[in-house]
Amino acid sequence: MYVVRPVETADIPALESLAAVTMPGVHTLPRSRDKIVMAVERSLASMAAQVDIPSEESYLFVLESLEERRICGTAAIFASAGSNGTYFSFRNDVIQQVSRDLNICHSVHALTLCSELTAYSHLSSFYVAPEVQQGPEAALLSRSRLLYAAQHPRRFGDRFFVPLAGVTDDAGQSPFWNAVGRKFFKMDFLDAERTIGGARNRTLIVELMPHYPVYVPLLPGDAQAVMGQIHPSGELAFNLLTAEGFEADEYIDIFDGGPILQAHKHALRTFTTSQKLRVRTGVARTREGPLFNYAVSNADSAAFRAVTIPCPDLDGCDAVALPPEIQDILRVAEGDSVTCVRI
Amino acid sequence: MYVVRPVETADIPALESLAAVTMPGVHTLPRSRDKIVMAVERSLASMAAQVDIPSEESYLFVLESLEERRICGTAAIFASAGSNGTYFSFRNDVIQQVSRDLNICHSVHALTLCSELTAYSHLSSFYVAPEVQQGPEAALLSRSRLLYAAQHPRRFGDRFFVPLAGVTDDAGQSPFWNAVGRKFFKMDFLDAERTIGGARNRTLIVELMPHYPVYVPLLPGDAQAVMGQIHPSGELAFNLLTAEGFEADEYIDIFDGGPILQAHKHALRTFTTSQKLRVRTGVARTREGPLFNYAVSNADSAAFRAVTIPCPDLDGCDAVALPPEIQDILRVAEGDSVTCVRI
Amino acid sequence: MLVVRAIHEGDLDGLFNLASQVGTGMTTLKADMKMLGDRLATACASFAETIPPEERDYLFVMEDTANHRLAGVCAIKGAVGLTEPFYNYRIGTLVHSSRELNVFTKMETLYLSNDLTGSSELCSLFLHPDYRVGHNGKLLSKSRFLFIAQFPHLFTEKIIAEMRGYQAEDGSSPFYEGLGRHFFKMDFHHVDDLTALGKKSFIAELMPRQPLYIAYLPQDAQDVVGAVHKSTAPARRLLEQEGMHYEGYVDIFDAGPVLQARVSELRALRDSELAIIAPDDDMVHACAPATTEPTLVSNTTLRDFRMIITEAASVNGSIDLSAAEQQLLHCATGATVRTLPLNVKKNQ
Amino acid sequence: MLVVRAIHEGDLDGLFNLASQVGTGMTTLKADMKMLGDRLATACASFAETIPPEERDYLFVMEDTANHRLAGVCAIKGAVGLTEPFYNYRIGTLVHSSRELNVFTKMETLYLSNDLTGSSELCSLFLHPDYRVGHNGKLLSKSRFLFIAQFPHLFTEKIIAEMRGYQAEDGSSPFYEGLGRHFFKMDFHHVDDLTALGKKSFIAELMPRQPLYIAYLPQDAQDVVGAVHKSTAPARRLLEQEGMHYEGYVDIFDAGPVLQARVSELRALRDSELAIIAPDDDMVHACAPATTEPTLVSNTTLRDFRMIITEAASVNGSIDLSAAEQQLLHCATGATVRTLPLNVKKNQ
User: Fold this and answer.
1) Which residue spans adopt a coiled-coil conformation according to this UniProt entry (chains A, B) (predicted)?
2) Domain boundaries, chain B
């Protein structure tokens, strides 16, 4: 059995071990002990805070194997991207080229530096250990952040985005960076990411990045080819997020050209199809029809818990049957409310 | 009793009388008999067409008082805006101004000519006679287009927009036009609208409109004041559409600066909360709880019909009780499916 | 003997014969009787001053008086871009710097512009291959500067000349392949033909409106910005000697440079002088240096403007022209002519 | 007697006294001992050629030899914009036309640019009020052109001068009120002060990046684009006489014009001449015209550059300077000097 819960101070050593094995990249867990400690403390403070307007809070969740008492995944959500500055991305604009006299009409893509994702809620740091990547636990982990957000709408924006790492080669070279950012920064991709600490909110981005649109057809073929493409390590996350309702075409990362998925919460399945149901003690009814994996979470902010259970279609139901051991994990009792959404 | 149904050839004289009383403006019904005939014919052909990819179709609906056999409202939807060109609008960009050294960070609005609304489905021509503006029929009429779209997703795009007429004074002057378009077109607002026939897809827009962003703070106060503001005649439509889930801040009209509401279908209540229910003969059950106004439509393309009925909460139900006379109007029988959405 | 003169009504056949020799690459001189006839009519109206200065198109021909053949042609347009937008790319500089990273990057940018709207334009220079010897090329090209020096009030503050841009051996334009093709989706030569038909402004509609960083173009396109076609290099040098400069404007298709000058700073305006044709019995000839540099000399008549090269020099405001030379200029002793040394003084 | 000369180490106090007279409005000459001391050190290193040409800052002072008072100061910067970005607005033209509507609209646009990066700059001209008589202003301002004519290799192709822009009676700038204020949200004078502290580039970060249509500015802001402060009009005329032109670049805050020229086209480069100081017994004096125009004359020494106005004229490569004049120039008979008529010839 696996549970997703907010990170705790005791998890720090486990997070350090995880950080040691995750691949290099900027959208995953921080790597140094200091930064991990900071992330955990910030999450604890954020969970405890009374929030009216989303700001600097960030929430870090872990996936725990209850049998092994082992952390095997992480996922985070920042309440408001760029809340201490501006979150910069490239907007992928389509420019219509029209000449009536020549009877020509076609469209050209251009990348424009923009700050439109500022104040969106920002999902990040998604990592799942290899042994649980195939199961419903990966989906549970990714979605738990949104279940939490759905239960605490005042802590988050109405829109969400997730940057996924773009394509780099074995030597750490990014074809997109080499064609775009390098001309201005005059340094290698990994050096630039190190310099900027993976941030997308720094003034030096405005100072150095192009002020005018980058016309895509003018970029070398290898740079065009990787625009909006994910690093292989991001495939699982990409599939989970697009199934959730995130869309990929509008924004890309200014450094590596990786996709930035985004959506209004109204377009996300967790928000539109989750049901608030009463807890009934029992095993899942095996009435007519097949079983589905459902994510089920309690509604308590600080002690947020989410699990995945097989369950018949809950559409039209007003209660869900949970065995006592699941109720214990979720810290709920018969008659309490839980939020359920099909995975 | 009122019904919303597709326009028919026999409605042409009634539409002519309606057109005679509607206010001047470009987003309402065509004014000449020829154009009305064309619109009706195009709607009939569109309804009859087998559509795989939304294109030049447009669908015109009328609100009919069954008692009086009188047309008292119209509403239309174009399958794909600018399908014969490009649909131009101003995108309301927010530009971050950041100076780290001076510790200054503020944002400036700028209007950028864009074609992003091209291929959205485009709602227009909404008109309701004064005597039914207060009732649920206005909402029924506005929403019927979306009910139709929800039942025929292949006929429409995933995104929808609705331009609403902007502010003009009694002399037909538009403060927004005077500050923006007039500098390039060198003519009065009404002359320009007449010249362009209310269209937003013409090459001359690219030829004449500003190629670079118009910084809003540089515009005169009266032009800034009317940006995104609706003409008083559009208030009913605006309220119905925002309640439906349309958002108003991102785009404005290039001529009069009026708001262009837009939304992904996932954000529209008709798409997210409508239910497909079986028809049961009977009067509305008066079990516990109050009655709500529901829009109910049949699912037949050519003979689309929608009515509004008072009804208890249908959440969790799999059938809806309709009296025989309503079944007749909707051309359905016990056991058929209807689509219901609370107004 | 060769004379450069204002074109006349009777020159249409000769002009057509010349145009037939031009071949591809010169968009303003096509061997098309209708087009040439229209242009000739405009030119005659220009010299007759029956149309406003900005609509004028002064066409000059070089005539071989031995056989009355037209040996070359050149022109000055009164103003460009007043009926159709006249597009260029202007090259600008943007500095991106970050003190935090100690990066200071100077980037060149292309701005689509109509800045040269209203300028006068030197254009349509063509010398028949049979006459490409000696000073003939200079005589033909420079005649326009003497004309401008004589009639500066007819021209705007700025004069320009578009130079054909660099082409590879196979006739392709690396700049076009690196930029324009992505937006036009047609061949360079097709674009060139449309340009010849006056469709340049419609094509320009398809160009990206936003400024472009040159560093984002392929290297071979970057390399030819402002570079001339190799056959155009001598023409460029001639114009530069007369005071025209490349100031960062290039053609939107092939990135050929636009040379430009303030009219008041042309060598011809600064250094040309008026002189009186001296009577034979004067001592002008005796006092003149034994060997002189060739000198351009023109009459001062707008409608019948004529210019030759002479070995005579202007001394103290007088010049000793032979009877034949006077004949070529349609001038007689005592008339005022304008003179300019053919070549730039070396020590300048 | 007044002499304009390269600044010396010992001039700091005199420079400070001058700067104390400047008042507000001149950002590069503040009465600040530290700033002035730094600048003086750079200037001395510039004349000594111990720093590279692009880092140099040639500071000239006008000295009253009667009392050894410094009466004025002016400077030439080797190159601008190489450590901090140097911003201007460039004014361009965009034509919007539709044949269908028969509309042809020529719009002026402002482009934020760093185009002038690397140009040499004339700056910091200040003449003490006590000395604002006669030719003193011209002598001071024009000394820089003679210096450039003598040492053209020290300067880049382009030379510029920023002119103070138009201000209303109350000291406000209509251009700033119409444009900059919306983006800076601070007072014009505060911006001016920051500029004085070298913060111009940080302020420019706040300027809109996209080209702006001038027609979208309030009318009073449109009206002053390229217009100088009324007290700056004489300085502008002086520079224009020397061959500098307004070419469409203006200050980003007050829209004051930038005058510019190619170094090779300055009047001083074209018209100044070298001459030998003639021995007393020569006939130069006798042959010279009875009354002459005043002439600027300088020595040809970089490190100890000195220049005066003389009534003597250069005749056939010789000039007859009095002993006092030779003393002012630190020159003796037989030395080579550079001469340039103070005033532009009227018939040009």
Assistant:
1) none
2) 2-91+113-270, 274-342
Across the interface, of A105, A115, A266, the residue whose CB is closest to B267 is A266
**Using one digit for the tens of pLDDT, what is the confidence trace for D129-182?**
999 999 999 999 999 999 999 999 999 889 999 999 999 998 899 999 999 998
In CATH, the number for domain B2-91+113-270 is 3.40.630.30
Whether residue B76 contacts residue B58, with contact meaning beta carbons closer than 8 Å, is answered with yes
Helix axes D12-20, D33-47, angle to 10 degrees: 130
Find out whether D29 and D328 touch, Cβ atoms under 8 Å.
no
Q: What is the pTM of this model?
A: 0.87
Query: By the CB < 8 Å criterion, does D97 face chain C?
Result: yes
Q: Which residue has the tokens 């003084």?
A: C345
CB distance A244 to A268 below 8 Å: yes
Query: Which member of B99, B114, B316 has the closest CB to residue A316?
Result: B316
Return the amino acid letter for D20: S
Domain range list for chain C: 2-88+113-267, 272-341
Calpha distance C84→D4 (Å, rounded): 53
Tell me whether A276 touches chain B (CB under 8 Å).
no
Q: Is 90 exceeded by the pLDDT of residue C262?
A: yes
pLDDT at B22: 61
**What are the backbone angles phi and psi of residue A78, rounded to the nearest 5°?**
-95, 135
On the question of a common fold for A2-91+113-270 and A274-342, the answer reads no
Q: Shortest CA distance to D174 belongs to which of D54, D252, D106, D255? A: D255
Taking the C-alpha atoms of residue A289 and residue A109, their distance in angstroms, rounded to an integer, is: 48
What's the topology of domain D2-88+113-267?
Answer: Aminopeptidase (3.40.630)
Q: Are A88 and A254 in contact (CB under 8 A)?
A: yes
For chain B, give the number of residues: 343
pLDDT in tens, C105-149: 899 999 999 999 999 999 999 999 999 999 999 999 999 999 999
Contact criterion met (CB below 8 Å) for B149 and B122 = no
pLDDT per position as a tens digit, B174-221: 999 999 999 988 899 888 888 887 788 877 887 888 888 999 999 999
Which CATH architecture fits C272-341? Answer: Beta Barrel (2.40)
Residue A259 bridge partners (DSSP): A252
Assigned CATH for B274-342: 2.40.40.20
pLDDT tens profile A218-228: 999 999 999 99
For an interface test with D, the pick among B94, B102, B185 (most D C-beta atoms closer than 10 Å) comes out as: B102
Q: Is B163 left (phi over 0), alpha (psi -120 to 50) or beta?
A: beta
Give the CA count within 13 Å in the CB-facing half-sphere of B121.
Answer: 28
For A290, phi and psi rounded to 5 degrees? Answer: -80, 175
For B7, B77, B299, C256, C337, the CA distances from B302, given in Å and listed in that order, are: 10, 15, 9, 61, 88
The confidence score (pLDDT) of residue C97 equals 85
Q: For residues B327 and B307, is the Cβ–Cβ distance under 8 A?
A: no
DSSP C199-260: -HHHHHTTS--S-EEGGGS-HHHHHTTTPBPGGGHHHHHHHHHTT-EEEEEE-TTT-PEEEE
Q: B140-144, B198-202, C321-325, D125-129: lowest mean pLDDT where?
A: B198-202
Q: C209 and B211 in contact by Cβ < 8 A? A: yes
Summarised one tens digit per residue, pLDDT across range B283-329 is 755 556 788 899 999 976 668 999 999 888 888 788 899 999 999 99
pLDDT digits (tens, 9 = 90+) for D220-256: 999 999 999 988 899 999 999 999 999 999 999 999 9
Give B 80-99 residues with CB within 8 A of chain D. 95, 97-99
Q: What is the pLDDT confidence band of residue D347, given thresholds at 50, 70 and 90? A: very low
